[in-house]
Automatic annotation (TrEMBL):
Keywords: Cell membrane, Membrane, Transmembrane, Transmembrane helix
Protein localization: Cell membrane
Coiled coil: none
Organism per entry: Micromonospora solifontis
A Pfam family matched in the record: MFS_1
Xref: PANTHER family: INTEGRAL MEMBRANE EFFLUX PROTEIN-RELATED (PTHR23513), MAJOR FACILITATOR SUPERFAMILY ASSOCIATED DOMAIN-CONTAINING PROTEIN (PTHR23513:SF6)
Main localization category: membrane
Source organism, top-level taxon: Bacteria
Membrane topology per record: Multi-pass membrane protein
Name of the protein in question: MFS transporter
Region (Disordered): 395-424
InterPro entries in UniProt: MFS, MFS_dom, MFS_trans_sf
C-alpha cells in the first residue's frame, strides 16, 4: 500500500475521500435516528434507509451520465452537489418536516451511486493497473476504520446538539473533497457522444457484466451470498438478547469487534488479490462469512468474538476483489455504467435480505437463520473459488520512485477484450 500512497496524485484523492467518507459515515445512521426522534416510529426510521437504497434502480441512467463526462470535474461537481442537497436538512424542526429528510435521503442515495461510479473511473485514470488493488485496499481500510467511530459519533452528535451541526459537518466534508480533487492536474479527453447514444447505451453496463466471464461469475456468486447476508442485520440483535442474554447496547461492542476485523481485512486485501486473483479474493471474502455465521448459531461470547472478527475481515476482501475486477476488466469509456450497474446488483439483494431478515427473525429461531446464512454463503464462496482461474494471480508491483507528475492519461492495463461502489 505504501507504493500507491507515494503517488502525489493518489495522495490528493486519498485526502479528499477521507473527508467525504467521514461525512458519509456520520450521516447515514443519524438520518434514521433523526426520524425516530421526530416520529417515535421504528418503521418510519427504517424507511429512511429504504429511501437511500431506492435510487439504485436508476443505476443504468447514472452510469450513462457519468460516462459522458470527464472524471475529475464530474467528481468535483458531484461532491459540490451533494453538499448543496443536504442544506434543506437545516430547516427540519419537527414531525411535519420529516418529508424533507426522506427527500434528502433519496437524493443522497442517488449521489452515492454517482460518486461510486465516477470514483471507480478516476482511480483507474490515476493509478496503474498493478496498483489498483493497493488503491482499493487503502480506501477500504479507511472506510472500515470510519465504521468503528463514524455512525456512533454521528448519533452522539445528534443527541448532544441536534441535527444542524451534523449537517454542517457533513456538508463541510463533501466541500473539502471537492476542493482537494479540484487541485488534481490530470489530462482527460472528453468522451465521444457518438458512443453514448440514448437510450441504446443505457444497458451497456449490464450487457458487459453478463458477457465477461469473470464478472458474470463474480456477480452471480456474490449476489447469491448477498441474498442472505443482510439477515444478520436483524439476527445480531436476537443473538445478543436471546443467546447471550445481554442488553441490546452490547451490539455496539460486537460491531466494534467486527470493525477491527474490517481493518485487518483492508490491510490484507491487496496481498490477497495479488496471490489469489480478484475472483479468488472475492471468493475468500464470501467464504469467510460462512463459518462466521455458523459460529453465531451457537451463542458463546468467545466464539461470537471470533466469528465477528472473521465477518469483519470478509467485507473488505469482497469489495476490493470486486472493485479491482471491475476496473481491470472494463474499457474506460464504459466504466461508469459498469460500476453503477455492479453497485446496484450487489446492493439490491442486500436491501432485500435486510428486509426479509427483519420479518423472519420474528417467526423463525435465529439459530436456524444463522445456519442458513452460513450454508448459503459457504456455497456461494465455493462457487466463486471454483472460478478463481478466470483472474490469475499477479506479481507484486515493483518498488519504483513515485512520478513527479500526474499519471499519463493513457488507459493503464485495460483488458483489450470486453469489460463495483459500495461502496464506495
Amino acid at each position: 500500500m505504501r507504493s500507491v500512497l507515494r503517488r502525489p496524485d493518489f495522495r490528493l484523492l486519498f485526502v479528499a475521500l477521507v473527508a467525504s467518507m467521514a461525512a458519509e459515515s456520520v450521516l447515514l445512521l443519524a438520518l434514521a435516528v433523526w426520524v425516530k426522534d421526530l416520529t417515535g416510529s421504528d418503521g418510519m426510521a427504517g424507511a429512511t434507509i429504504f429511501a437511500i437504497i431506492a435510487p439504485m434502480t436508476l443505476a443504468p441512467l447514472v452510469g450513462w451520465l457519468v460516462d459522458r463526462h470527464r472524471r475529475r470535474p464530474f467528481f468535483v461537481a458531484a461532491n459540490l452537489g451533494t453538499a448543496v442537497l443536504l442544506s434543506p436538512l437545516l430547516a427540519v424542526h419537527d414531525r411535519a418536516d420529516v418529508w424533507v429528510i426522506y427527500v434528502v435521503a433519496a437524493l443522497y442515495g442517488l449521489s452515492y451511486i454517482t460518486l461510486s461510479a465516477v470514483l471507480s473511473g478516476l482511480i483507474r485514470h490515476l493509478v496503474p493497473s498493478d496498483l489498483l488493488a493497493d488503491a482499493n485496499g487503502v480506501l477500504q481500510t479507511v472506510r472500515q476504520g470510519l465504521r468503528l467511530v463514524g455512525p456512533l459519533a454521528g448519533a452522539g452528535l445528534y443527541a448532544a446538539v441536534g441535527g444542524w451541526l451534523l449537517v454542517a459537518l457533513a456538508m463541510t466534508g463533501f466541500l473539502t473533497a471537492a476542493g482537494v480533487v479540484g487541485l488534481l492536474r490530470v489530462t482527460e479527453t472528453v468522451p465521444s457522444g457518438a458512443d453514448l447514444r440514448w437510450p441504446a447505451e443505457l444497458g451497456a453496463g449490464l450487457r458487459h457484466l453478463a458477457g465477461e466471464p469473470a464478472l458474470r461469475r463474480a456477480l452471480l456468486g456474490y449476489g447469491l451470498g448477498s441474498l442472505v447476508m443482510g439477515f444478520t442485520e436483524s439476527l445480531i440483535f436476537a443473538y445478543v438478547d436471546q443467546g447471550l442474554r445481554r442488553d441490546v447496547a452490547f451490539v455496539g461492542v460486537l460491531v466494534t469487534v467486527q470493525g477491527i476485523g474490517g481493518l485487518v481485512g483492508g490491510l490484507l486485501s491487496a496481498t490477497v488479490v495479488r496471490r489469489a486473483g480478484e475472483v479468488g479474493a472475492l471468493a475468500a471474502g464470501v467464504t469467510f462469512f460462512g463459518p462466521a455465521a455458523l459460529a453465531l448459531a451457537y451463542p458463546r461470547l468467545w466464539l461470537g468474538v471470533v466469528a465477528l472478527l472473521l465477518a469483519g475481515v470478509s467485507l473488505p476482501l469482497t469489495m476490493v476483489g470486486l472493485n479491482t475486477l471491475v476496473q481491470r476488466r472494463t474499457p474506460a469509456a464504459l466504466l461508469g455504467r459498469v460500476a453503477a450497474a455492479s453497485e446496484a446488483l450487489v446492493s439490491g439483494p442486500q436491501a432485500l435480505s435486510i428486509g426479509t431478515g427483519a420479518v423472519l427473525v420474528g417467526v423463525v429461531d435465529y439459530r436456524l437463520l444463522f445456519a442458513l446464512v452460513g450454508v448459503t454463503t459457504t456455497a456461494a464462496g465455493l462457487y466463486l473459488w471454483h472460478g478463481r482461474r478466470l483472474t490469475p494471480p499477479r506479481a507484486a508491483p515493483a518498488r519504483i520512485p513515485a512520478p513527479r507528475r500526474p499519471a499519463d492519461p493513457v488507459d493503464h492495463g485495460v483488458v483489450a477484450a470486453t469489460h463495483r461502489p459500495r461502496a464506495r
